[in-house]
């Protein structure tokens, strides 16, 4: 079964363009090192329908002027994920790249960023 890294990221609506730029770099980099799929999505219909749980607005504790990014990266397995992420981190830590990535703007608050790895239990 595949393995997925999932992210829920609150960000200011005014920072969506900067986030998209960072996400495009992420997609290119993770795919270069073997990620099967890479998705970055921005909240569009965030209103909760009656009886449908708490919704992302409450989950992400969104503030006025914010939206949420819902993102995931797909791998062959957890071992594959670990290998891909190791290569990505090695590239980011390379002496020539360290300075470039250090200055990349972070368009969201890392303290409110949520991330986890998931085993796929159903694929269709």
What does this structure look like?
By secondary structure, this protein is an alpha+beta fold. It has one domain (about 5-120): Alpha-Beta Plaits. It contains 4 helices and 4 strands. It has helices spanning about 15-30, 55-60, 80-95, 95-100, and strands at about 5-10, 35-40, 65-75, 115-120. A 4-stranded antiparallel sheet has the order 2-3-1-4. The radius of gyration is 16 Å and the shape is flat. The termini are close together. The model has no long low-confidence stretch (mean pLDDT about 90). InterPro entries: Dimeric_a/b-barrel, DUF1428. It comes from Candidatus Nomurabacteria bacterium RIFCSPLOWO2_01_FULL_42_17. This is RNA signal recognition particle.
Q: Tell me about the largest β-sheet.
A: 4 strands, antiparallel
Uncertain segments: none
Estimate the strand proportion. 25-35%
Overall geometry comes to flat
Number of helices: 4
CATH class: Alpha Beta
Instruction: Report the CATH topology name.
Output: Alpha-Beta Plaits
Q: Say how many strands there are.
A: 4
Q: Specify the helix fraction band.
A: 25-40%
Structural class computed from helices and strand pairing: alpha+beta
Spatial separation of the terminal alpha carbons? 11 Å
What's the CATH architecture name? 2-Layer Sandwich
Secondary-structure element order, as H and E? EHEHEHHE
Question: What is the topology, as strand order, of the major beta sheet?
Answer: 2-3-1-4
> How many separate structural domains?
1
